[in-house]
Each structure stands twice: as C-alpha cells, then as structure tokens.
Specification:
Length: 115
C-alpha cells in the first residue's frame, strides 16, 4: 500500500460483488495516531492481483487509527446510493479529530471512488 505501518492494524476484509465488479475493501492504520498508513483501499478483484506492488483501484486516506469492519448498504449506480460504513479506531484526547477531541468517528464513503 505504499506507506510504512510499524504499529499498525488491519481491518477485516470485505469482498463485495455488485453483479459486475468484485471489490475487496481493507482498512489499515496506525492505531496510536492520525499519521502513517491510515487508509481504506478498494481493490478490483475480477482478476487475480498478480504482485505485491499492484496499486489499489482507489484509496481514501486519514481514517484516524485505522478502521473497524465494513458494512455495505446496497447495490446501485446512483450517486450516494451505494456506500460503505465503518468506525475509526483512534480517538485523540486533543487536536483535530473529525468528531472532536476524545470522540471516535463513524464514516460513510461511496463504494465507487471512496469519497
């Protein structure tokens, strides 16, 4: 995934087939902070990933401390109608957490594009 993650965690994998594309989602993170490999990645696995240097299809960064397991809402091509949900694993006592100091975050990303 390109980033160093010495104190990291890895979410459970989520494989989701929408009838056309088979997607694999994984979250990684440094559970002690907001830096490092705090990512959510989406991999198109219609074909085998042939190398450890293969880049993911899409990446979302800065998911504080990594992610919990993922949940998917439905299959749709409409904007905002097909999303994944997860929680963050880090809650800073101070600083600029997306939900305020001391609070974990619930996150929604659209499946296509992870935005």
């Amino acid at each position: 995934m390109g980033a160093s993650n010495p104190n990291g965690s890895c979410s459970p994998l989520l494989d989701f087939y929408d009838g056309t594309t088979d997607r694999l989602f994984v979250g990684t993170g440094n559970y002690t902070g907001s830096g490092g490999a705090n990512l959510v990645t989406e991999w198109n696995v219609n074909t085998r990933i042939a190398s450890s240097s293969t880049a993911p299809s899409v990446t979302a960064a800065n998911e504080w401390g990594g992610t919990s397991a993922f949940s998917v809402d439905n299959i749709s091509t409409a904007p905002q109608a097909a999303s994944i949900y997860f929680g963050t694993l880090f809650s800073p006592a101070s600083g600029t957490s997306p939900c305020g100091a001391g609070n974990y975050s619930a996150v929604k990303l659209t499946r296509s594009g992870l935005q």
